Amino acid sequence: MVVDWLAAGIDPAQATLFIQSRMPEHAELFTLLAMSTPSSWLERIPSYRDQVEKNRELATYGFLGYPLLQAADILIYKAALVPVGEDQTAHVEVTREVARRFNRIYSPGHNILPEPVALLTETPRLPGLDGFKMSKSNGNAIAMRDAPEVVEAKIRTMPTDPQRVRRGDAGEPTQCPVWPLHQVYSDSDTLAWVEQGCRSAGIGCLDCKQPLIDAIQKEQQPWRERADEYLANPKQVQWIVEVGTERARAVARKTLREVREAIGLSY
Ligand code: SF4
Predict the structure, then answer these.
(1) Of 4, 137, 183, 256, whose CB neighbour count within 10 A is largest?
(2) Which residues on adjacent β-strands are paired with residue 83?
(3) How confident is the model at residue 234, as a pLDDT?
(4) Do 23 and 155 lie in a common domain?
């Protein structure tokens, strides 16, 4: 995973990459924030309710509290901006409420924990290859370093507009899981070609998918090359994470000192 991030261009000189499970400070802040966070705030988060309805085994205290742990992960670094997908904005909103409440109760006027803001990209939501929520466990994602032939096979087997059963049937791009990918990867000429060709049955679905396959393979090529350099030198990757973990720890410890002080736990 770290190799993927580095290969995508994250610069460890500017970004701190670390291993959270080596930082007990996150768990401590989570516990302290739990004392002032109403459980109703967590129960109303839509993703919690949906997932527990689907799987009762998730109805645990830890799963309910997970968004609060995420809040601690953000607040411990006093983050101003949180790069997330659209489905995570509710979690950032809870983080803001948690910070506001903590500040009001324990540090009025000082705002020890600043309220972060969600940072969305131009593509705040990208559906999976089957049109449903993209997730590795659903098997509907393209991995960053999938081999070119794997990318090709995944796109070629993507479902399309269900109304377009035969080559001669006209389709509707907005009803097709391939269309959101075109909107990310294709220029305006290609988009117009897809719309016209799909609605008139002038192009087949495999014709339509080819520019996408080409664009994704082209995007991934430099990632694979950069990743190869890191994979050939795992010690360098370990060192990047090691340095990042120590850098993160210094910031986390400082925040916790302030939080303990504010709560009155600094003995
Ligand atoms: S032509 Fe393209 S947009 Fe239309 S149904 Fe086929 S894959 Fe989807």
Answers:
(1) 256
(2) 119
(3) 96
(4) no
On whether residue 238 sits in a domain, the answer given is: no
**DSSP H or E run through 33:** helix 24-34
Q: Which of 83-87, 206-210, 240-244 has the lowest mean pLDDT?
A: 83-87
Name the residue at shortest CA distance from atom 7 of ligand 1: 205
Averaged confidence pLDDT in the chain? 94
Q: How far is CA 205 from the centre of its chain?
A: 29
Task: Name residue, tokens 């973990």.
Answer: 245
pLDDT band at residue 237 under the 50/70/90 scheme: very high
Shared domain for 98 and 195, answered yes or no, is no
200 CA distance to ligand 1 centroid (A)? 11
Amino acid making up residue 242: E
* pTM value > 0.70: yes
Residue 153 has pLDDT above 90, yes or no: yes
Q: Is 161 in the pocket of ligand 1 (CB under 6 A)?
A: yes
Residue 164 lies in domain: 148-228
pLDDT of 48 = 83
Q: What is the mean pLDDT of residues 99-103?
A: 96
Asked if residue 8 belongs to a domain, the reply is no
- Ligand 1 probe mutation, 205, 209, 210, most atoms within 8 A of CB: 205
Please give the Cα distance from 135 to 180 (Å, whole number): 16
Q: Is the CB of 212 under 6 A from ligand 1?
A: no
DSSP state of 223: H
Are residues 258 and 216 both part of a single domain? no
